[in-house]
Amino acid sequence: MHANGGCPFATDPALTALEASVYWTPAADPGTILISAAPTATADHALASPLPGRDRRRDGGDTYERIEVADATFPAIVQAELTPRTLLAAIILLDDDAVDRMDALTRFLLALKRRRVPPDSRLTPQRRIRLRQMLRTVDGRREGATYRAIAEALFPDHQIETSSFAGNALRETTIRLARDGMKLVGGGYRALLRKPRRPQ
Fold it and tell me: Which residue has the higher pLDDT, 20 or 174?
């Protein structure tokens, strides 16, 4: 009998969100590398198993793991039983996220070759700043703060007058931060796993 009433937790409930290992399916996270055994007619110099993985978890015939190489960590799903001499192949799904998947695979290959790995372009410095602003705005609104009070906290270098705030561009910015922040905490956080795209 499990302490939670009979059902095992997906992860250790004693761990914080920052400590727990979270695995996403390739459908949710295009940064997940899909690895399988290479076809038999491949070149002899193809990469061979094993890969330096940790936190391995089995799910059916697949193994979810984090591959650590060159001071970088890559989530991966290994779709085959690998021996130390198995030649490896990566699978790129031909879907709307194929370009993102190729970017992730490129970073992975550069790490394996011990070359400089560019930062993950899904979370740019500008996007990180806006994410913090969105979460602060949501917290402020939930505590009953006005848009003007939130704007003053977010943009302390700007003079925000009560009489002119209705027509101030920062008011519209703060409203958008609140709107997008509510989408984020309401389940939209999974969009962070993809590069931002312009509406079609």
Answer: 174
